[in-house]
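for the writeup, i need someone to sanity check this before i put it in the appendix. the sequnce is what the collaborator sent (i think, or maybe the updated version? ugh). structure was predicted straight from it, no edits. if anything looks off just tell me and ill rerun, i have time this weekend
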Amino acid sequence: MSLQVRSRPMLPVAILCGGKGTRMREAGETLPKPLVEIGGKPILWHVMCLYASQGYSDFVLLLGYGADRIREFAGTCPWNLTCVDTGLDTPTGGRVARAREHLEKGTFCLTYADGLADIDLPGLVDFHKAHGRAATVTVVRPQNPWGVAHIADDGRVDGFTEKPRLESWVNGGFFVMEPAALDRIGPDDILEREPLERLASEGELHGFQHEGFWDCMDTYKDNLLLNELWESGEAPWRSLVNT
């Protein structure tokens, strides 16, 4: 069941769609990563549904590798989409910089085409508006992919914890930004490095703590796990998409 759409200001949602998916080769070497499927639909569709089902359906797709194929898919979607070709090998920050004319009129959302979460997006936007700074990044505590051994002072292993959540917060990839943030993003920047570091050092970046489900389809194994969740009916983001 989808969430009831709340009445929200129409904010553009920029989605980074330029990746080649080099670690997804088992899923199809020539397929752009945003088009790799979960439950018979491209992961890009799942990401857009997360936003559209919560009232944000104005998308700016930042294209790179496989631009023509993604543009063709975009033509089948029911939302308002603008496709911007940002270059084949442009880094993530540079892709955002090249789409500035589509984002500089006011507050905008930004995310990746390979991350899924049961995130409260209006809550994220409200949090951003409340602190009044240039940018907000959603931070998450993903599961450690390994079991953790507990070592006593004398060297004994006195127990294990199977795949615990990390104690540290990491970049979960759901951003809200003001046009002022664009001034910190250069044409050759990697978004996750210089721009976020600049914003943080200037006190212009806040973190929205998401305690719920989050996963990133970074590898073929991730794709298998997300498909298993979807097919089992236990995908935590399923209630947030229009199936």
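Residues 123 and 136 are 12 Å apart (CA to CA). The first helix runs from residue 43 to 52.
thx in advance!!
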